Amino acid sequence: MAATYRRRLQRGAASTAVAALVLAALTASQAPTLSETAAARKQKPAPPADTPIDGGSAYFTDRPPLNRPAPHPKKHESGPGPVVVTGPAEAGLPATVLAAYKKAASAVHASDPGCRLPWQLLAGIGKVESGQARGGAVDAEGTTLQPIIGPQLNGHGFALITDTDGGRYDGDLTHDRAVGPMQFIPSTWSNGGPDGAGWGADGNGDGKKDPHNVFDAALAAGHYLCAGGRDLSAQGDLDRAILGYNDSEDYLRTVLSWYTFYRKGTHEVPDGRGVLPVHHGGAGRTGDRDVRTQPEHGAGAPDRHPGSGKPGKAGKPDRPGKPGGSHGTGPTPGGTGTPSPKPTPTPPAPKPPTEPTRLTVLERVGDEDLSATAGGEFATSPRVRAKDAAGQAVAGAPVRFTLPAAAGARFPGGATSVTVPTDKDGLATAPTLRAGDKAGAFTIRATAVGRTAPAVAFGATVEAKPAPKADKIARTSDKELTATAGQPFAEDAVEVEATYQGKAVPGAAITATMITAGPKPEENDKGPYFKDPEATGAGKGKPVRTLTGLTTDANGLLKLPKIYTDKHAGTFLLRLTTADGAVLTVKLKVAPAGS
Q: What b/e sequence results for 28-50 when a residue is b if at least 16 CB atoms lie within 10 Å of its CB, and e otherwise?
């Protein structure tokens, strides 16, 4: 943001001297750069100071409710120390969001224990950036139910960042916008890290790096805060880490106030039931996918990004507002400047779904186990009903259906788990389930997300696919089949086609047997033979005269394995049969050795 500030000061500073003083103060508080990475720990270096984590996009809550000052180990000249919030509701963190912060802190501790990243710091930043993903409006996997997207970074009171992601993350094809619960700009997420690697992370192990997912975003933020070899137990490194997220003293104090508060105790609340900031009431624009109460930027709309200062005036370092007062929109990660004008009223966004608190039991609907044929769809899907203690149906409860990965069965999109809400009658029905290619049995589990209700199990059976019918087998060549005793027949000497009512049959099962001649043919014990394909060790190459499990290919054709001969000469018979009774007898002529 340093470059952004310089442009603002040049436009509106009262004098060169004032501008120089402000620039000096700002430069002193920039985020650490590669020159500060002398620590022994090898971490991703912090980005340059003029590359904020989200391009200077406005943050969600200006100030927490005030109660009393909280002592700060370091006194900031630009204002008083942090303050703490009050009231038990403010200490409630949505279950999935809380899990994401703790998981991220644990992962960072494992890879960089010297950073000493507390999960409460991630919670403090998440509160300021997005109101804990708008009160925990996320699905069971941690992805926001509605995208959290900041205003356009078009240089009008914000950083100027032209589109870097083709609208992939922010839906904007001209400029970048900060996205997700931790408010990363796409360029920072994808390629803003050292060597262009980007800060994006996969926090939930699904193989994707999604800034709209709170697990991924929290882990990425953790790595960012620890960059440059920081030790966050040291106040100086802690301050620099937060200022690296947003180079603003007001932002620093706001984050520290929540961090201090959360360290004194928190409790878990259901997703969607987190407290939203009183200054914004949780409302937000949804037409441009901005759910953080931002006015449209363009003709007739004032630039009111934190750090921009009032329109037409020079930007100044942020100062805290009066206790209990509303500040409009404060700075976001990477932003600096004075409080902004009162935001333009916007229509309230739809309220995020809330998790029912009354759910106590999941009840299976339907007594029969589920069944399907290999490769086909199950005729019925698992279904449960959510009830409260009084036996009444509970609507809107998220229910997760989970399959064992080894079963081979999958929900749409190849998923092994899906989460669906119960309807007005308390019913949750899993989407269509497709069986794997192998026969067998497995169990499907249904669980109430975020609740302690006992899981429901469904038995599922996959039956082998019936072999295709074939009413005729015929050779594809009429060439005589001959060999010399002790020598094999030509490679792939016997090729046949299976048909049913004149049409080729793929996958037809065929059995091949060397038989004796006569009215009662049986398996021959001499003459041509196959080699046992399953034999190993000393038994490898053992002669066998019956092969089962042979199937035709996609064109209904089958080439038999190589046929060998022993010392016996003469005319021998090979019989091919299908399960539907089709029979083909082939003559194999073996000439005496030396003839």
A: ebbbbeeebbeeeeebbbbbebb
Q: Count the Cβ atoms, other than its own, within 10 Å of residue 342.
A: 12
Query: For residue range 427-465, what is the model confidence (pLDDT) as tens digits?
Result: 999 999 999 988 999 999 999 987 778 999 999 999 988
In the numeric block, which tokens belong to residue 555? 């064109």
The three-state secondary structure class of 115 is helix
Q: Which amino acid is at 418?
A: V
β-strand partners of 93: 268
Q: How far, in Å, CA of 410 to CA of 494, rounded?
A: 40
Q: Which of the 8 DSSP states describes residue 140? A: T
Distance CA 264, CA 544 (A): 77
Helix (H, G, I), strand (E, B) or coil at 576: strand
Residues present in the chain in total: 595
| Secondary structure (3-state) at 70 | coil
Q: Quick one: pLDDT at residue 197?
A: 67
pLDDT score for 515? 96
pLDDT band at 510, cuts 50/70/90? Answer: very high
Q: Please name every residue paired with 52 in a beta bridge, in sequence order, or none if there are none.
A: none
Going by their DSSP bridges, the two strands 83-84 and 177-179 should be labelled as unpaired
578: left (phi over 0), alpha (psi -120 to 50) or beta: beta
Mean pLDDT lowest for which of 74-78, 89-93, 256-260?
A: 74-78
Tokens of 26: 């700002």
DSSP annotation of 280: T
Sort strands 482-484 and 583-591 into parallel, antiparallel or unpaired: parallel
Cα angle for residues 197, 200, 202 (degrees, 5° grid): 120
Residue 88, classified by CB atoms within 10 Å of its CB into exposed (0-12), middle (13-18) or buried (19+), is exposed
Between CA 500 and CA 506 the distance in angstroms is 10
CA pair distance 187, 164, nearest whole angstrom: 6
Q: pLDDT grade, residue 229 (50/70/90)?
A: confident
**What is the chain's percent helix, strand, coil content, to nearest 5?**
20, 25, 55
DSSP secondary structure string for all residues of 339-393: PPPPPPP-PPPPPPP---S-EEEEEE--SSPEEEETTSB-SS--EEEEEETTS-B
Q: Which of 155, 156, 101, 149 is nearest to 124 (CA)?
A: 101
Q: Tell me, what's the pLDDT at 519?
A: 85
Q: How many CB atoms lie within 10 A of CB 297?
A: 19
Reading the block at residue 355, the tokens are: 């998790």
3-state secondary structure of 164: coil
Q: What is residue 259's DSSP assignment?
A: H
pLDDT at 371 over 90: yes
